[in-house]
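Hi U.,

Before I forget, here's the chain from the pilot set. I'm dumping it here mostly so it's searchable later in email.
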Amino acid sequence: MHASVDVHPTFITTSDGLANNSVRYLFQDSKGFIWMGTLDGLSRYDGHSFVTFRPESGDKISLANHHVKKIQEDRNGFLWFITAPELMSCYDLKHDCFVDFTGCGEYRRPYNKILETAVGDIWLWHHQSGCRKIVCKDGIHSSVSFTKENGKLSTNAVNSVYEDEQGVIWICTQLGLFQVTGEGYTQVVQDSLSFVGAMSFRHKIFFVTSDGGIYEKSSGKNLFLTARLPWKLSAFNTYESCRLQNDWVFFTPEGGEVFSMSEKRLIHDSSLDIRLGKCEKDNLNNLWISNGTGLVHYIDVRTRAVRIFRLMSDEKVKLIGDERYHIIQDVPRGLIWISTYGNGLFVYDSQKEEMTHYSYHVDEFNRVNSDFLLYAMGDRTGNIWLGSEYSGIALLSVLNDGATYIYPENEKLVDRSNTIRMVTCMENGDVRVGNRRGGLFAYDCHLNLLLRNYYHLSVFALKEDDKGQVWMGTRGNGLCIGDRWYVHRADDVNSLAHNHIYDIYRDYRDRMWIGTFGGGTRFGCLSEKRFCVSSFFEGEFWRARGSYYYC
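Structure:
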C-alpha cells in the first residue's frame, strides 16, 4: 500500500548496549537522556552509548528491581522508577546516583502508585502499605508515612490519593475516607465505606465507593450521597474511570455510565457506553478507550468528538488476550502514532484522514522490528521511539516530512505583514504566532485559526506560568499578564527595566524570567497585590576564557 508517511528505522538491541531486548517503558529526561525500562535492568542513552543500571548487593542504594515498569521526572530533577515487585526507586539527576527518597531508610517499603502535587510534593501509596508524603528541600528528601500502625489511617489498604483543585489531599481507603489537614495529620471524613476514587469539580469534590455510591463534599459541609451507579465497583480491581470535561465516566462489565458533576446526576451518553473500557491518554490528554474488541474510541477532550479506529481483527485480539496501545500526538506534523501489542504500528494523518500501517514481515525490509510493541515515545527532535517485546527498540525518523505554509494575513499582501516575529506552543497544544504588524494568532493542532488579536506593537514573547496565566512581552508596549499591562516607570525600581521585551522564560522552579532590550535579564514576581521584578547580575561582568560578558 502507498504510505502517506514514510519512516527510516534504526534498530537498537543488546548488541548495541541495551540492557534487555524487552523494553516496557521509554522516557526522555530534562537533560535530554533517553531512559529505557526493560525486563532486565534500566538503560540510559546519550545518543552515542549506553549506561546500564541493575540492583546491587550490599548497603549501597541502587535500582530496586530488574523489571522497570514506569519512569517519570519530578520538578526537582529526580527520576522515579516503579518496578515489578511494587518497589520504588529515586534517582538524582544532578548528582548521578540513587537516593533514599524517604530520608529515614524506609525506601524498601512497597509502593506502586505515585502523585506529584501542585507544590512539588510526592505521594506514594500501596494497597497494603498505606501512603507516604515526600518533601524535597535543597535536594534533601524527608517524608511522613500514613499507616494504621501510626494511627493516621484505619487501614493500610489505600486505594488512591487525590489532590483537589484547592490543593487539599484526600486518602481513599478500603475502610474510610481521610483528609490531610497538616504536616502528618489526618481528619476522618467517613470511617466505614470503601472509597475507590475522587474527582474535583470547581469548589466541590466527589467520591465514589465500592458499592457504587457517588458522594459530594463541599467546603464546611458533611459528606452526602448524590447518586448511585447501577452496579458495584471492585475495591481490589477497580474498573476504569476518567474525566471528560464536566463529567466523570465509569466503565464496567455492564457498560459505561456518566455522572455529570455540574448537574449532580447520572446522564446517558451512547458514545461512552463501552463495556469494560480501558482508558489511555495521549500527550495532549485526549482519551483512547479500548475494550478487547480491536476497536479503539478516540475522544477529543475539548470537543467530545469521537472517532473509532479498528486496529486489530477479532482473531488477533483473541490470540493476544490483552490489548495494549500507546498514542503520541505529533502536533507539528499533524500525525497520530499508535503502537499496538500484536499488530505493529499505525500512523494516522489527521489532515488527510489517511492511515498507514507498519507491521513486521520475515525476510522483508521492515520499519518496525516487531508487531508486539510495548511502548511509544516521541523525543524533542521529532523522532519516534518504539519499545518491543524481545526485539529491542525501533528509532523512527520521518522521511517525507513535508511543510505547510501558513500566512496569518492575506498571502497576496506585498508588504511585510506576514513577517513572523514569534512562534510558540502553549501547554494545551495550541500554537501562537505573532507577526510584524502586531497581530497575535492562535491555531489548533490541525492549523485551524482559533483567534486573532492586534496590538500596537509586535508581540515577541509568550509564556504560560504555573497558574495558567499567559505572560506576553511586546516590542515597546511592555508586559501583559492575563489582561493587565505592566510598563517601565522611572520612579519605580521594581518595575520593568525596559518596555522592549524579547524573551520570557519559565524555569523548572516555575519562576518567570524576562529578557529586555538594554535592561538586562529580570526575574518577574506576580502576587495578588502587585507585580515586581528583580535584576539578575545587572551591571556585573562575567569573565570566561579571556572574554568579558555583560549581563
